[in-house]
Amino acid sequence: MTAADRIDRRFAKLLVADADGAISHLPRAALASLFRPGDLVVANDAATLPASLQGVHRSTGEPIEARLAGWLSFRDPLRFVAIAFGAGDHRVPTEDRCPPSPLSAGDQLEFGPLVASVECLLNHPRLVHIGFAGSPASVVRGLARHGRPIQYAHVPERLRLWDVWTKIAAEPIAFEAPSAAFALDWRTLERWRDRGVNFAALSHAAGLSSTGDADLDRRLPFDEFYRIPHSCAAAIEAAKSRSGRVIAIGTSVVRALESAANADGTVRAGEGRASGRIARGAPLRVVDAILTGVHQPGESHYELLRAFTDDGVLDHVRAAVEERDYRAHEFGDSLLIERQAA
Q1: Tens-place pLDDT, residues 287-308
Q2: What is the number of helices (H) and of strands (E) in the chain?
Q3: CATH number for domain 2-48+160-338, candidates 3.30.420.40, 3.30.559.10, 2.40.170.20, 3.40.1780.10
């Protein structure tokens, strides 16, 4: 399997595993003609924050990088869950990054125009709560001036913020791009509308895909904030009432919808936090199919796919993506996995 090491979506591929486990291969542009009238496609419209902050640990003068990984508060002060690294940048594989200088509650971290305080450590020397001095507006300005998109070594060129914003990006609350939505463009949305396939959006603060630490990676995903508009919840209820399917664009949409699901498959509008993993045996009350990227066993994203279909089908999917050289990671190719027939 090849890691997508550049932003080039012109020749993207799509693997489809249907409800019976049959696999087919299509150009990703075929998404525009795949779904049935009455189906509902739900995507994550969160824009991506410049959530990688390079700076200095004040008490030691040592370099530090903080990767913001979760919201604790949107109010004054802005507070986050963060993962800390020592010297280095994205060109070093995450698992090879050195740790930061030992951190303690009360430590001050300087990130260009921003100053953050370590509030506490979370049973790991690299996992911390931090809060920023200044008003929320000034902190956001500081992030825009000094922060960069979180990036991994498989993409050597520096990413710009607009590289990690999807076509439907709205409020910047995500820490990494809700990358399944890179498959969407205005032409596809228009084709769906013309064919009677409906579209709705929610906002989910997609978190980190990797920390470089096996213990921390087992804790992923962290609790993630979401907001489901009344219009989205109503569209889901309408689709279910006419036997339409709900297709989630990305794992973040599945997490939000299933976290907000009632027992009857309706969805509660409003804000909440998605917590815990969705994995084998988890009941799916809302989502009938997922469009996602190419993932590896053990990753939380892959574990979520096990709620949709059995391991035999996923083994065939893995073999097919290897054989046909599907590209992995956020700028890679796409999988459409339908929920397995009962």
Answers
A1: 999 999 999 898 899 999 999 9
A2: 7, 19
A3: 3.40.1780.10
pTM > 0.70: yes or no: yes
> How far apart (Å, rounded) are the C-alpha atoms in residues 131 and 3?
35
Give the helix/strand (H/E) hosting 237: helix 230-241
**What is the residue type of 45?**
D
Answer yes or no: CATH 2.120.10 is held by domain 52-146: no
Q: Are 24 and 316 in contact (CB under 8 A)?
A: no
| Residues facing residue 272 across a β-bridge | 226
The CA distance from 149 to 164, in Å, is 7
Q: Return the ∠ at Cα 67 (arms to 66 and 68), rounded to 5°.
A: 110
For 38: left if phi > 0, alpha if psi spans -120 to 50, otherwise beta; the answer is: left
- Residue found by looking up tokens 């213990």 in the block: 215
Q: Are 244 and 212 spatial neighbours (Cβ–Cβ below 8 Å)?
A: no
